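Practice set, problem 2.
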Amino acid sequence: MDMDADAVSRIIGTHKRFTSPFEDCSAYYIADENTEITAGLEELYFDKLRYAANNAEALLTEAFSDELYNFYGVNKAKVNSPTEMLAGLVFESFVLVPKRKTVECCVSNPKFMFGHFIELIWDCDWNLQSVWIN
């Protein structure tokens, strides 16, 4: 279920680490085809998004490793170091998956990772579960 763009926007505002929900509202959603999306589930989603917006730098820093910079899909002519790459990463999607009790996000930057992304998965207590680059 796609989340309301206005509600998402009230949480993330003009945060440099998040894409606008008005550009791609389908990037902000709850992934659960078998469960009715309740008000409580929506509130959980918004709580997780609030936390991510308030802690984006720490979440990305924890998940990032210099090896990601060496991925073939990173245009080194556009980004000069792992530090610069980390500084430019943006949440392009933010998904709550209730069935798995995870928050799953794709981060990227089309300026230096065009067509590629890093998938980050946290459990609902913000313990990093997986980092995968494609």
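Problem 2, part (b): a different protein.
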Amino acid sequence: MRKLNVIITACILVLFIIHGVFGALLLTGSGSTALKPVAWTAAGLTVVHIVISLKLTFDTLKIQKQTGVSYFKENRLFWARRISGFAVMVLLVFHMTAFGYSKGGFYRLKAFDDIKLITQILFIAALGTHVISNAKPMLISFGIKSLKPRTADILIVLSVLLFCMAAAIVIYYLKWNAF
């Protein structure tokens, strides 16, 4: 089940990057699509990832209860991953409802106010925390033994992508509130 979760996670990461790049282009007026099917595929895989992750977390909690020891201090990274994942789940709902809706075959934009800006920036921050804190275990799961040569590259690429996505959201906000 863990291996399946890792494969699903890698697929979500690829789809997230594609959606984020095309979404950033769309928000800044440089693109014409956010590839909605990619986003919905990522959302479906995310639901599967959540279900599997919850099962694995409950299994861990069950073992901790049976043994009577939790080693909370030693497992802070484990809990940071779970908490950031929960934050992503909550903020994903805000993301899915922030920009617009379809009505009568037409896509209608919603006003993009201060609250939406804050929730989208928090969403990107939570995603960044979740992805970066889980990058090492994911690479290990794929059998990549030497992480040092790749760690800095991964962090730089993810940081630049997340920064560009956040910048696009700020630009979109400024466009909405320029009047």
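Answer key, part (b): The chain is about 75% helix and 5% strand. The mean pLDDT is 88.
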